[in-house]
Task: inverse folding
């Protein structure tokens, strides 16, 4: 009977101009990496001229000396995509997945990605100075949160992992509030209870990050089932890492998604590394998208450093879900350019310069080049914006610390320690709070 | 203890396996798990969930408080024919910790049980250790709290007897009752939350075994019944002051 309930979802037109999604067959894209045209690379023969690119075969040979198992798998999975990878050097967006976003939207996306990077740089510096206990950067993956977030409606519900804080920037959250969560000071909306980086933002429909990896996946499917049973046209989107797909939670989620067909977008962010474990360990010999197909869920792979392509597939999945078409799985193929967190040193398990050689490049550089090619951006505007963001983050951090530091406070008032465990304070907690002195 | 759901399913698999096959086959598995707070780990990395496991028939639960005990107990656990949950207090990995975050960090090198013999040795499960003998009151603790209580007793000047339980299941009830019947007073200390914590089980057994020897109600000093906080960690973590307060209360009347 659940199927009947889900069929009642109202159609809401959010179509992206210029795309006839009905003509696109997701099954055809599972093994191929979708990109928007300007950013199509040949894995085997990148030829010349594009900064920072190397031949995948040279990447493999570099890796063979140190990290043979990981990179053999990587190269193997990439070579399967030969048929789609026709490189074009003019940086134009072409092809069926070009979302035809306006220059203003693309510039907004660029600015938000640059904001995330600038925020990360400031926060990492503060962690190095001992002002934060811990930090997680989004380096190299900024497009994931920003492009996918922009392709969703504000009412859509987000169940992110710890590497999509940028979803909050898309929805206009104050950077100071985000910093205060990290410092866990008096302005932290989590009242200092969560670990730094485990953002939670009700107004933005951004559900709290949790440390156990993968738990957000079944939660998101359940949330989408609730939306559907209430007849709402809200879509739920969730993100999981490549490593966590080897958790039971991933499969619990996906089997419910396959059975009940709720309006959910299941994103597997394949950033190549589960802390120090290469993605091939969890993936086995297929793609992560193929995991979805095994459950009869339409599944795609997308170049996660290609802003327009990422926007496009997410908009496709959202529209499909809103029409009552059910779940989709998107494998977002990207690269974690920084360490897992400030507690990690990747030089112990991968070549130091690997990030610079990632064949799909840097998402910010790529969007910048695309906009410049269209005459909608320039290097001088870019440099100016970078400087402006750097100064802004510095000022915002000072403002955030005016609400307290972890070392010297003020933190959440001690009297709040017993709040929110239950909706109303029960007698046994009242007694404990009195013993605590409040 | 952040992979709680995974461990719950692993342990339910382990604990149900043995009885289901009528003990024709055993599940001689040992699951090591970090536990406890004092490391700025916030609510996901600081829990003390031992009572979930003592509440599951078929499991044994061990919590060492020193490197020497950890080795001896771990070898016994691995050799044991039953499933054993082996909790390792995170705060103790690098040294003993008496509960004061501002005090200089201690190293195991200077601790009497920080030296571990490289040769094979085992410590039986279900054998508590009397860390300090005393006559006025018995203090029951395990894991990090053994060190907090030891320091608290020293600072209080009270002649307390401190017992490190080391394993919760099997429980060394004999050592507990012998001590409590001698002192007539008892304080139970654990990091875990209070309601349905392992302290409740200890208090129940003590009143069954030692009722006519008790001079005062048995008190518990525990973590509060809230999620483990990040910012207010040191308001949550059981301090020496709270232990001393409880010792004075059982001695002087409530």
Result:
């Amino acid at each position: 009977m659940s199927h009947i309930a889900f069929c009642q979802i109202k159609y809401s037109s959010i179509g992206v101009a210029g795309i006839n999604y009905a003509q696109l067959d997701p099954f055809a894209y599972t093994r191929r990496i979708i990109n928007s045209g300007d950013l199509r690379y040949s894995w085997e023969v990148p030829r010349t001229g594009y900064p920072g690119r190397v031949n995948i075969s040279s990447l493999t040979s570099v890796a063979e000396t140190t990290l043979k198992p990981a990179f053999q798998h990587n190269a193997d999975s990439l070579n399967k995509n030969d048929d789609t990878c026709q490189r074009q050097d003019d940086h134009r967006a072409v092809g069926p997945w070009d979302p035809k976003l306006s220059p203003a939207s693309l510039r907004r996306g660029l600015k938000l990605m640059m904001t995330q990077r600038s925020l990360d740089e400031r926060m990492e510096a503060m962690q190095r100075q001992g002002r934060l206990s811990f930090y997680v950067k989004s380096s190299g993956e900024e497009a994931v949160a920003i492009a996918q977030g922009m392709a969703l409606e504000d009412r859509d519900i987000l169940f992110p992992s710890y590497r999509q804080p940028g979803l909050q920037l898309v929805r206009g959250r104050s950077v100071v509030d985000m910093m205060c969560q990290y410092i866990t000071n008096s302005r932290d909306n989590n009242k200092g209870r969560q670990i730094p980086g485990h953002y939670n933002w009700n107004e933005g429909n951004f559900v709290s990050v949790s440390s156990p990896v993968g738990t957000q996946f079944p939660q998101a499917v359940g949330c989408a089932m609730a939306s559907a049973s209430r007849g709402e046209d809200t879509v739920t989107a969730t993100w999981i890492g490549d490593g966590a797909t080897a958790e039971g939670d991933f499969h619990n989620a996906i089997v419910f998604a396959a059975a009940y067909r709720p309006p959910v977008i299941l994103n597997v962010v394949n950033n190549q590394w589960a802390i120090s474990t290469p993605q091939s360990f969890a993936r086995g010999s297929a793609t992560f998208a193929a995991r979805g197909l095994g459950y009869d869920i339409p599944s795609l792979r997308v170049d996660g450093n290609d802003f327009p392509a990422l926007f496009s597939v997410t908009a496709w999945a959202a529209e499909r879900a809103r029409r009552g078409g059910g779940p989709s799985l998107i494998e977002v193929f990207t690269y974690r350019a920084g360490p897992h967190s400030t507690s990690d040193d990747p030089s112990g398990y991968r070549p130091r310069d690997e990030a610079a050689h990632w064949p799909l490049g840097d998402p910010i550089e790529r969007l910048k080049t695309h906009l410049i090619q269209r005459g909608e951006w320039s290097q001088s505007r870019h440099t100016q914006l970078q400087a402006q963001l750097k100064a802004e983050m510095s000022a915002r951090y000072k403002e955030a610390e005016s609400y307290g530091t972890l070392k010297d406070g003020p933190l959440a008032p001690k009297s709040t320690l017993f709040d929110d465990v239950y909706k109303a304070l029960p007698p046994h907690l009242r007694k404990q709070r009195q013993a605590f002195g409040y | 203890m952040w992979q709680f759901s995974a461990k719950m399913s692993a342990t339910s698999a382990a604990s149900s396996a043995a009885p289901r096959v009528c003990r024709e086959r055993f599940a001689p598995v040992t699951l090591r798990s970090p536990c406890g707070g004092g490391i700025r780990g916030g609510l996901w990395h600081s829990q003390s969930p031992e009572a979930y496991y003592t509440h599951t028939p078929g499991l044994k639960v061990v919590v060492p408080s020193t490197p020497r005990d950890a080795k001896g107990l771990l070898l016994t656990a691995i050799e044991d024919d039953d499933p054993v949950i082996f909790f390792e207090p995170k705060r103790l990995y690098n040294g003993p910790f008496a509960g004061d975050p501002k005090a200089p960090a201690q190293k195991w090198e200077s601790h009497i049980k920080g030296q571990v013999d490289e040769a094979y040795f085992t410590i039986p499960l279900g054998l508590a250790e009397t860390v300090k003998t005393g006559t006025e009151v018995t203090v029951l603790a395990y894991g990090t709290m053994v060190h907090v209580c030891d320091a608290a007793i020293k600072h209080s000047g009270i002649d307390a007897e401190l017992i490190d339980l080391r394993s919760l299941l099997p429980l060394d009830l004999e050592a507990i009752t012998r001590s409590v019947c001698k002192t007539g007073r008892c304080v139970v200390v654990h990091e875990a939350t209070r309601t349905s914590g392992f302290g409740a089980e200890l208090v129940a057994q003590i009143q069954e075994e030692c009722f006519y020897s008790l001079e005062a109600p048995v008190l518990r000093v525990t973590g509060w019944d809230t999620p483990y906080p990040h910012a207010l960690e040191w308001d949550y973590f059981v301090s020496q002051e709270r232990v001393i307060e409880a010792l004075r209360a059982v001695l002087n009347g409530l």
In short: The first helix of chain A runs from residue 2 to 7. The mean pLDDT of chain A is 82.
